Amino acid sequence: MNVETILLILVGAVALIAAIAMVVARNMVHSALFMVVVFSATAVLYLIYQAPVIAMLQIAVYAGGIMVLFLFVIMLIGAEKMSHVENLRWQRPLAFGLMAVLVIETLYLAATQFRLPAPIEVGSDFGSPESVGQVLFSGYLLPFEATSILLLTAMVGVVVLTLRREKTQ
Length: 169
Fold this sequence. Notes:
The structure is a single chain. The protein is built from 7 helices and no strands. It is mostly helical. It has helices spanning 3-24, 28-48, 52-77, 79-82, 91-112, 129-138, 141-168.
């Protein structure tokens, strides 16, 4: 077992433990912070697999932007209001039943159809920031610009709705 494999197992274990803690945490803020740990561990896994662009996007988009949004929503709504949700009696047995079905199905598929694909030869610059930028800004320039215009429109819409709401109050 080499260092890369040990690191992969350790980071995977951290991600798995944080994901379980995220699901079972009673406090919404703690759950959101465990989600940040999961996103960060996923970014480290991308770095182990030598995909630095995807790792940086994982940190910037998920651990940065989306988690800030989640924390703002939790703080605005109030975590204490969200913690008093009543569970229905049928939810827990249904969840355990679905989990059992998924585990059995996963074990069945792993036992019957587990075949490693042949390794694919990739270029030495595959996944590098330069090659991703070259593809993004040459072959996919129109979708990239359309996405940027859509995001700009959404930001302007938020500002307009916020100003309109402030005038009415």
